[in-house]
Amino acid sequence: MTDHPPPAAGFVLTLACADRPGIVAGVSRALAEAGGDIRGAQQFGDEDTGRFFMRVVATLPPDGEAAVRAALGTLGAEFGMRWRLSARGTPRRVLLLASRFDHCLADLLYRWRTGELRIEPVGVVSNHPRGSYPALDFGSVPFHHLPVGADNRAEQEAAVWRLFQDSGAEFAVLARYMQVLSDDLSAKLAGRCINIHHSFLPGFKGARPYHQAHARGVKLIGATAHFVTADLDEGPIIEQDVERISHADSPADLIRKGRDIERRVLAQAVRMFCEDRILLDGVRTVVFGD
Ligand SMILES: Nc1nc2c(c(=O)[nH]1)N[C@@H](CN(C=O)c1ccc(C(=O)N[C@@H](CCC(=O)O)C(=O)O)cc1)CN2
Hints:
Elements: E1 9-18, H1 23-33, E2 37-46, E3 51-60, H2 64-79, E4 82-87, E5 92-98, H3 103-113, E6 119-126, E7 143-145, H4 153-166, E8 171-174, H5 183-188, E9 193-197, H6 209-216, E10 220-227, E11 237-244, H7 251-274, E12 278-281, E13 284-287
Parallel strand pairs: 5-6, 5-8, 6-7, 8-9
Antiparallel strand pairs: 1-3, 1-4, 2-3, 9-10, 10-11, 12-13
Helix pairs in contact: 1-2, 3-7, 6-7
Protein name: Formyltetrahydrofolate deformylase
GO molecular function: formyltetrahydrofolate deformylase activity
Active site: 233
């Protein structure tokens, strides 16, 4: 009976460092010496920032992960590299936040249930009660009603942060959560909190972009998924899309058409995050698409 070696597992390596010769060679050697097999690689050198970014998909033999982590540790120290190695397809634990409008929350939960999005929702937070979502089935996902007003913003945010930590969430998604996060919470969630803004940024920031768009008479509307920073609607952009509209569209028409754009843009951004396709490049992102 022939012994078959255990199947090699799939991994994604992402890295960023100051650009200089030898990075790709070093990474390839580290993987090869650990028995790894590169299945795909994307890289980008940003001439503005002098930074280099890379995403590698590789298989590793069972004992290869420890070996490659050791080699990457050494390489990382030599090149001043930030790197991350994660098993492909591992669901990412996410805390979902929403306010009155539920279309993005409903869409993410559907894509999770159908297996399209490799997420594990660890909780839903809303500043509105559960009864505000009659159309939604949260199933086994815990729902947390955390009302917020001018008199309890700090306490409410402390509860959100405690939930994020206690649930073991890896990232958060503001799925039309209409509260501005404080500088403190924004900093704690830096690079791991994705917001969907219902306009094609940098146009029409704030809480009512569709009314602004209608008043301005634009011919395209859009949506923007971005990382949350303390500066409202200024975070590094992950994904955007637009749709043509006309003079005949009322604000209500724009809100209706915008929902579809918001849903697909947010879902794409969440998928890219879960597949380690997004790297921060200062105030911008590098997105290694599929
Ligand atoms: N620190 C940040 N927090 C949030 C961001 C962000 O970019 N940085 N994005 C928002 C989402 N958003 C637009 O996409 C947005 C949400 C809320 C408001 C706003 O003015 N809210 C008012 C209250 C409105 C209400 O209660 O309905 C407020 O907070 O005083 C503007 C833009 C999520 N958080």
